[in-house]
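Quick one, tokens below:
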């Protein structure tokens, strides 16, 4: 049984910061990619950031320079440090992971957290 548990969401003023954390149970992160997705109020669903087994990181243009993804193992934990937040960052944020290979679309990722709301105003 695999479970991803997210925390850290909430309401923040424009320009503020939040750190999202995802803790994995029953899954090791060594074999595949992990990432953070978000679903906007307009129901757009996009990959925000991902990290590969070798530590390579990818960021959407909209968050480049403002967000940082990080990963710890044993225990398995994925984080997203968000700074200089904008109203456009308002969304439900999801932690996602793959057993192996990529996690670059919602269909590539086998495991998902329940989502955590981030509201920027």
């Amino acid at each position: 049984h695999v479970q991803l548990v997210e925390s850290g969401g909430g309401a923040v003023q424009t320009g503020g910061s939040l750190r999202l954390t995802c803790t994995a149970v029953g899954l090791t992160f060594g074999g595949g990619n992990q990432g953070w997705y978000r679903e906007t109020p307009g129901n757009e669903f996009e990959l925000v950031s991902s990290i590969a087994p070798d530590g390579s990181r990818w960021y959407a243009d909209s968050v480049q320079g403002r967000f940082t993804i990080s990963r710890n193992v044993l225990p398995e934990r994925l984080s997203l440090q968000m700074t200089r937040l904008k109203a456009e960052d308002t969304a439900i944020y999801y932690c996602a992971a793959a057993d192996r290979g990529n996690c670059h679309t919602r269909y590539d990722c086998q495991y998902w957290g329940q989502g955590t709301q981030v509201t920027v105003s």
